[in-house]
Structure prediction request, 75 residues.
Amino acid sequence: MNDFVICINNDSNPASLILGKVYRILLDVEAEMHNMLRVIDEDQSEPDGYLYPASMFAPIELPEVAERVLVTAGA
Prediction:
């Protein structure tokens, strides 16, 4: 599982998700069984992230340096 995804659909959550933005996801096996992802979104008030349909995102591979920066920045 990748640690990052890119938002490809924010129709139902335009205030919480930015189309085209990279988001960090957290491992949640139960959510994945229901085709959901646990995402650290724009709100960031919930450290455990929020659940969103996986269809709203596409998995991406980032260069190691980019992953380090995003993790350090709390993305």
